[in-house]
Design a protein that fits this description.
The structure is a homodimer of 467-residue chains. The first copy, chain A, has helices at residues 7-16, 19-28, 31-37, 43-50, 55-64, 67-76, 79-88, 91-98, 103-109, 115-125, 132-135, 149-159, 184-189, 198-201, 215-225, 245-262, 278-305, 307-312, 316-343, 352-383, 405-430, 440-466; strands at 142-144, 168-172, 178-183, 209-210, 229-233, 239-244. With 467 residues, chain A is mostly helical. In chain A, strands 1-2-3 form a 3-stranded mixed sheet.
C-alpha cells in the first residue's frame, strides 16, 4: 500500500520549486519515513525532492529507496550528480547498487569517483556474492594501540560521520592486524578516566570472520554473540572491514526466504517475486518441476507392474490419492522439522539415531491415527458393496475384510514417510549437500513411489488371504 | 558437537577449588565462549565455575547458557545465591527464565528480590507471549529534557553498566512521556560542544511500538529502519522499555521457523525439535494430518463418481499420481512465492491482479513444458499398446490419440495449481487469516481434487472423440 499522505504537497512544492520546503521535509522525518512517503513519486520526482536536501541527508534517504528507483535515479540524472550521490553512500551499498546499474553508465561514473573509493569498490567486487567480503563495509573505525580514552574519543568524534558505526572500534597495529576491540560503551563508562590507555580496556579475544566465509556463518555468529557488528579479516588476520547488525537482519531474511523457496523447488531469486522477470521465474521453477516430473514417472512403472492387484480389485484406485497424500504429508512434516532444527543449530548429523527413534514413534502414532480414520472410511465404503450390482460395469466395492488393506497401508506409509523425511535431510547434510534440497517435493516424490509399492504389496497379500 | 577443549582443566580446577584460575577463565574470554566451553559440564559443575567469577561476568555468562541448564542451576543452588543471579540478569531474560522455573522455587525466590525488581517482573508477565511487552527490557537509559551534552554523557556513564544498551538514550518529560531520542553517536559527535542542550540535537520523530503490538511487527519496524533498539510505549505514549537488536534477531529466527512449520502443517512448538515431548509433537502434527486426511477423502468420491471413464480406459490410473503431483508441485511453488513475498512486505492483498496475471503466464509456461514431456511419455506407453494382448487380463494401453488426454490434463492442472497457489494465500490474508495456513499441504489438497476432476473430465470428452 503506497502512503499518499504527502504526495500532493510534495508535487506542489516541486512545481513551485520550493527548495526550502523540500529541504525541511527531508530534514524533519527519519530518512526511512521520507523514503516511504515518496513511494508514490516517479524516480525523477524523487530526485527533485532529495536534491533539495543536504548531501548527508540525501544519501541517507536515497539508501532507503527501493532498489529499482535507486538504479533509475543513477541512470537518469547527470553523471556528476550521480557520482556525488554514489560516493556519499556506504561502501557496501555502493557496490550493491552499481552492480545493478547499466554497465555503460558505470563506466562513465567510475572515472569521476575519487581514486580511493574506486579502488575500494573494485576490492569489494572481487568477493563472490553471498560471502562476508561482499557484505562488508570498509568504513570502519580503526584506532592505534597507543591511544588513551580521551584521545580515542576525540578520534572517533572527528570521524563519526564517515563511519558506518561508532559503537565498535577496532584496535589495529601498524600493519593493520586486528589486535582488539573497544566499544563506545566501554569508552563512555571510562569517560571520567580520560588518561587510561585503551589497551587496558580493550577486549583481546575478538570474534571475527574471514572475507571468504559464507554470509550464513556470519549471521550465525552475530546471532550467537549478540553483536552489533562483526569484523572481517583476511587470512593474515588484517582488518578489512565490518558487517553491521542491519545487514545481518537483511541476510537472515534473505536466507529464510531462500530456504522457503528451495523447500518447494524454486531456485534462489535475485529479486523479489514481482520484480523477477517472468522468464527467469519460469526457468527457476521449470527446472525443478521437470526433475520432479521425471522422478514421478516411476509411479507409472510402479502401478503398471502391479496390474494384477489392480485388476483383481479395481476399488483400490479409489484410495490411491488418499494413501499417497497421507505419506507425503507425514514426510514433509518430518523433513521440515529436521531441516529447521539443523538451520537453528539444534540438530547435528551425529544425532541421526535420536531422530530415527523419534520419527519411528511419530510414524507409529500418526500412522495409527490415520489408520483408524482410514478403516472407518473403508468400512463405510464397503457397506455399499452389497448394494451395487457388479454386472452393470460399476466398480466392485471391497468387503469388510478386504478393506483392512487401507489401514495397514496407511500405517506403513506414514511410518515410511516419517523415517524418510527425518533421515534423508541428515543424509544429505552428511554428504556435504544442502539438506534443503532433500525437502518437501523430493521427500513427497520418494514417499509417493514407496506408497504405491506398499499399497499394492499389502493389497496382493491381503486379497489372497481374503480370496 | 560439544567443545571438550577446556573440560579436563575446568574439572581439575573445580576439584582443586582453584577460585583464581576459574575467575581468570571467566574473565578472559567472551562470555558466549565461556558458556560454549562449559557445554559438556553438568549444571552443578557449571555453577561451580561461574560462582568464582565477578557478579557481572557471572550474570553475563549465565545468560549464554542453554535454557534447561539455567533453569536447573536456579532450582538447585541455594535460594539466596539463585536470587542474586536472577536479579543480576536483564529484566526481559529474568522474566523468561522464571516462567520456566518450578513454581515452588519461584515463590521462594520472589520475596528475596528487591521490591522494584519484583514489581517489574510482575509487570512484564502481564503481557502475553509474542507481544512487544513480553520482549522488552525495562532497563532503558532515560534522560530529562533539561540536560546538556556533557551532563547527558555523565549520566549515561554513571549508569552504563546497569542498562541493556547505552547507544540509544530516550528523552522523557517529568511524566515519562517519550519526547525524543539521542544516540551515543550524536553525543560523541558533539563531544567537543559540551554545553549544547540535548533538545537541540535530539530526534523528535521517534519510531516506537505499543507494548501490546505483535513481535512480528516489532521485527518488521527494526528491520526497516535499521535500528539497534526500538522503544516500547503505552497508549499514553509513556516510555515502558526497549527491545534490542539481539532480541529482534531471535524473534526473526523464531518466526522463520514457525512459518516453515506452519507451511507443512505443524503447529508452533514451544521448544526445539529434540526437546519437545513426543506426545506434544504427535498432537501438533496429528491435528493437521487429520484435517488434511478428511480433506483428501473427497478424492475417493471424486474418483468414484468418474468410474465410467475409469472403466472405459483403465490405463488412466497409470498417470493418476503423476498428474496429481505435477499440479501439487506447481501450486506449492506459487503459494510459497506469494507467502514469502507477503512476509517480506513486497506484496499486498491489493496486488492480486498482478499475481493473477503472473501466475496465469507461469501456469501456461510450466504447464506447457510438463505437457510436452507428458505427451512424450504417453506416446512411449502407447507404443506398447499394440504389443499387449488385452484378453489376458492386462491393462489395455492407450492409442496415440487417446494419449493426448495426458498433456491436455497436465496443462490444465498446472494452470489450476499456479492460480490456486497464487491467489488462495492472498484471499486468506484479505479475510484477516494467517496466509501461511493456506500453504503447501492445503493448496496441494485442493489441487489434488481439482486434478482428478480435470483429468477425468478431459478423459471423458477425449475418449468420446477417440472412440
Amino acid at each position: 500500500m503506497i502512503n499518499t499522505l504527502y504526495l500532493p504537497e510534495l508535487r506542489e512544492m516541486l512545481v513551485d520549486n520550493d527548495q526550502e520546503g523540500l529541504r525541511d521535509f527531508c530534514a524533519v522525518l527519519h530518512p526511512a519515513r521520507v523514503a516511504e512517503f515518496m513511494e508514490g513519486l516517479s524516480a525523477e520526482e524523487t530526485w527533485g525532492v532529495i536534491n533539495a536536501a543536504d548531501p548527508d541527508k540525501r544519501a541517507e534517504i536515497f539508501g532507503y529507496l527501493a532498489d529499482e528507483k535507486q538504479v533509475r535515479i543513477v541512470e537518469t540524472t547527470g553523471r556528476a550528480e550521480a557520482t556525488q550521490l554514489v560516493v556519499d553512500l556506504p561502501a557496501d551499498d555502493r557496490a550493491d547498487l552499481l552492480s545493478d546499474v547499466d554497465e555503460q553508465v558505470v563506466e562513465e561514473i567510475l572515472p569521476l569517483m575519487p581514486q580511493e573509493d574506486r579502488r575500494e569498490l573494485l576490492r569489494i567486487w572481487e568477493y563472490p556474492e553471498g560471502s562476508a567480503g561482499a557484505l562488508m563495509t570498509t568504513e570502519v573505525a580503526r584506532l592505534s594501540e597507543s591511544l588513551t580514552v580521551r584521545e580515542a574519543m576525540e578520534t572517533i568524534c572527528r570521524k563519526a560521520t564517515s563511519h558506518e558505526t561508532v559503537y565498535y572500534n577496532y584496535i589495529v597495529d601498524s600493519e593493520d592486524h586486528l589486535r582488539g576491540l573497544i566499544s563506545a560503551r566501554q569508552l563512555i563508562t571510562h569517560f571520567l578516566e580520560p588518561d587510561k590507555p585503551i589497551t587496558d580496556l580493550m577486549q583481546r579475544d575478538v570474534v571475527s570472520v574471514l572475507a571468504t566465509d559464507d554470509q550464513e556463518l556470519v549471521a550465525e555468529k552475530v546471532a550467537k554473540y549478540d553483536f552489533i557488528a562483526i569484523p572481517v579479516v583476511d587470512h593474515q588476520h588484517r582488518l578489512l572491514g565490518i558487517i553491521t547488525h542491519d545487514d545481518i537482519i537483511d541476510v537472515m531474511r534473505e536466507e529464510a526466504t531462500e530456504d522457503a523457496h528451495l523447500s518447494v523447488g524454486v531456485g534462489p531469486l535475485d529479486q523479489g517475486y514481482l520484480e523477477t522477470h517472468w522468464y527467469a521465474l519460469a526457468w527457476k521453477r521449470g527446472v525443478w518441476l521437470t526433475v520432479l516430473f521425471f522422478g514421478a514417472l516411476l509411479t507409472i512403472f510402479a502401478l503398471h507392474s502391479y496390474e494384477t492387484s489392480l485388476n483383481a480389485a479395481p476399488w483400490l484406485v479409489l484410495f490411491l490419492p488418499l494413501v499417497i497424500s497421507s505419506g507425503g504429508n507425514t514426510g514433509n512434516q518430518s523433513a521440515t522439522l529436521v531441516i529447521t532444527a539443523m538451520t537453528n543449530g539444534e540438530l547435528k548429523v551425529t544425532d541421526w539415531l535420536r531422530v530415527m527413534r523419534r520419527e519411528l514413534v511419530m510414524g507409529l502414532c500418526l500412522g495409527g491415527l490415520l489408520a483408524m480414520f482410514g478403516y472407518l472410511c473403508a468400512l463405510i465404503v464397503s457397506h455399499f458393496s452389497g448394494l451395487v450390482d457388479p454386472i452393470d460395469g460399476g466398480i466392485v466395492l471391497p468387503t469388510a475384510l478386504e478393506a483392512t488393506v487401507v489401514p495397514i497401508t496407511l500405517l506403513c506409509v506414514a511410518l515410511c514417510g516419517a523415517l524418510c523425511g527425518g533421515l534423508l535431510p541428515l543424509l544429505f547434510k552428511g554428504m556435504g549437500l544442502d539438506p534443503a534440497l532433500m525437502s518437501n517435493p523430493f521427500v513427497a516424490g520418494i514417499v509417493d513411489i514407496a506408497g504405491i509399492v506398499i499399497y499394492m504389496t499389502v493389497a496382493l497379500s491381503m486379497l489372497q488371504v481374503a480370496g
